[in-house]
Design goal:
Layout (H helix, E strand, L loop, with lengths): L22 H5 L4 H10 L4 E9 L24 E9 L5 E9 L5 E5 L10 H8 L4 E5 L17 H27 L5 E7 L1 H12 L6 E5 L5 H13 L12 H15 L36 H10 L3 E3 L3 E4 L10 H4 L5 H5 L3 H6 L13 H10 L12 H5 L3 E5 L9 H11 L37 H11 L6 E6 L8 E7 L5 E4 L11 E4 L3
Parallel strand pairs: 4-5, 4-6, 6-7, 7-10
Antiparallel strand pairs: 1-2, 2-3, 3-5, 8-9, 11-12, 13-14
Protein name: Carboxylic ester hydrolase
Keywords: Calcium, Disulfide bond, Hydrolase, Metal-binding, Serine esterase, Signal
EC number: 3.1.1.-
């Protein structure tokens, strides 16, 4: 785990049940024929591909053709798992998975995807069903890993499926199947996703405010038209490979250690966590070689590259394109900045080559402001979640918790701050937004339940969302938990509150800094 940030764990947990009748469920069987009859009765153009019963504490075996999410969830509640292929109004197809627990608590949850991932997120479905929710994930209309984009070239309708249509269609049909299976519709509907999954959640509440009552988005990759090109731009800083200005991968950790040395004490406590990187006064010249061999230091040309990384992407006529990497993100640079190798660059060409249809000959040398302008004009699949007026979602009582990791390199916190500013103006919505941690995928194992040992709204963002939606109890903080070596069996290493933006957790000055009770939410400076 990167010591420069705390991770917000929000996986599964116990939630009180809502009353519902089990009569329909007891009379039905978990079979393809049963669910196909539900679809046919509702005149839905879809085919049930599989239906599988999973016993209590059992494992759902992920299908062999799954490329994106290959880990099988274990330790499940007794449930019926189905897979459905649906035809859109445009004639395209998307597939979704649905977990229907026997001890359903009357709630529905959609879990999001990551990157371009064309697959059903079975592992996060397993985490979600631990709450007692019925849980759905869609493959967004194609199959492939999180970097694969060849499916998009020349297929604008498939891109639309990925952008929003498959998520909405899968949600609508899942609710129909839930009502048919249990004999009643869900009382409350939730969404949880991180990165592209966060974008999916924002897109859903913008376009279809009636789909969900509560939405949890982590580090939303909402600005698709600029984010995907910035992924190429940052890789160009080390081009061409071997140039004097290029920073080697071996230096990334050294840079990170110097950032931590300078920035960590500035928030009032030296604890390996940079609580407010935007306010850190960092002096990169401390890394200058000054005549030494540059094995653990930087020459002047490399310092200039460092300045590029830590500054916004600004093009001709001072046109702002995308925000800079934050201090404290250096642990992720091996993937996001790379060492100038052609393979790291080529992995990021897919958006321009396939979604913008610039073809296989397009490379980083072709990237310019014109590319950004083309991307804005096309907005492939209408994927960018920039319909900032979410008053329809708010007016029907919808609740949104937005959290973002300070050490998320490709998705800087400023991206979150931009959308928060645009969407939180009084004319749009008068409600608090929360910057609360890093992500919420199942990171501690395929059978981990929630924040182990802390199944309550104070520690778990999903339970906090439920309390807000159903009881009107808005969270004033969420306690983040870090386990020793990310191993639950090793016990809790430390906890502290994650606070509503722009507040930060501030140490009281007394007590154990590893205990949440020793902190309070306040402005640091």
């Amino acid at each position: 785990m990167n010591p420069a940030y705390m991770r917000l764990l929000a996986l599964t947990g116990a939630v009180s049940s809502l009353p519902w009748s089990s009569e329909a469920l007891s009379a039905a069987s978990c079979s393809v024929d049963t669910f196909q009859s539900f679809l046919d009765a509702n005149k839905i153009l879809a085919t049930v591909q599989t239906a599988t019963s999973v016993a209590s504490n059992g494992t759902f075996t992920v299908p062999a053709d799954e490329e994106a999410y290959t880990t099988s969830p274990t330790g499940l509640r007794a449930l019926c798992a189905i897979q459905v292929n649906e035809t859109s109004e445009a004639g395209t197809h998307y597939t979704f998975g649905l977990f229907l627990p026997e001890d359903w608590n009357g709630r529905y949850l959609t879990v999001g995807n990551g990157g371009y991932a064309g697959g059903i997120n079975w592992i996060d479905m397993g985490a979600g069903v631990g709450y007692g929710f019925a849980v759905m994930s869609t493959d967004t209309g194609h199959r492939g890993n999180y970097q694969a984009t060849s499916w998009a070239y020349g297929n604008p309708e498939s891109i639309t499926d990925w952008g929003w249509r498959a998520m909405h269609g899968s949600t609508v049909t899942s609710k129909v199947l839930i009502e048919a299976w249990y004999g009643t519709s869900p009382k409350y509907n939730y969404f949880s996703g991180c990165s592209v999954g966060g974008r999916q959640g924002l897109k859903a509440l913008q376009m279809f405010p009636e789909d969900y009552d509560g939405v949890s988005v982590g580090a939303p990759a909402w600005w698709t038209t600029h984010l995907q090109l910035d992924a190429v731009k940052t890789l160009t800083y080390n081009q061409p490979a071997g140039a004097k200005h290029a920073i080697t991968k071996t230096m990334f950790n050294i840079i990170g250690a110097e950032v931590l040395r300078q920035c960590d004490p500035q928030d009032g406590l030296t604890d390996t966590i940079i609580s407010d990187p935007s306010s850190c006064r960092f002096d990169p010249t401390q890394l200058l070689c000054n005549g030494k061999a540059n094995t653990d230091c930087l020459i002047g040309e490399q310092i200039q590259t460092l300045y590029k990384i830590y500054n916004d992407w600004v093009e001709t006529n001072q046109t702002f394109v995308f925000p800079h990497y934050l201090l404290g993100t250096e642990g992720q640079w091996s993937q996001s900045i790379g060492d100038g190798s052609s393979s790291s660059l080529e992995n990021q060409y897919g958006y321009a080559q396939d979604l913008l249809m610039l073809g296989p000959s397009w490379t980083w040398e072709d990237l310019s402001l014109a590319t950004v302008q083309l991307s804005d004009a096309m907005n492939p699949g209408n994927a960018t979640a920039d319909e900032f007026d979410i008053s329809p979602f708010h007016s029907r009582g919808g609740k949104l918790i937005h959290h973002h990791g300070l050490s998320d390199a490709p998705l800087p916190l400023e991206v979150a701050s931009t959308i928060r500013h645009c969407m939180s103006t009084p004319s749009n919505v008068n409600a608090p937004w929360y910057i609360a941690g890093a992500n919420q995928a199942a990171q501690l194992g395929a059978s981990v339940s929630g924040v182990p040992g802390y199944h309550d709204a104070a520690h778990d963002v999903i339970l906090a969302l439920v309390a807000w939606v159903e009881n009107g109890t808005a969270p004033n903080s969420i306690i983040a938990t870090e386990y020793t070596n990310d191993n639950v069996a090793s016990g809790v290493m430390r906890q502290r509150p994650i606070c509503p933006h722009p507040q930060q957790a501030k140490f009281d000055g007394v007590g154990n800094p590893n205990d949440a009770d020793s902190w309070h939410c306040a402005l640091l400076y």
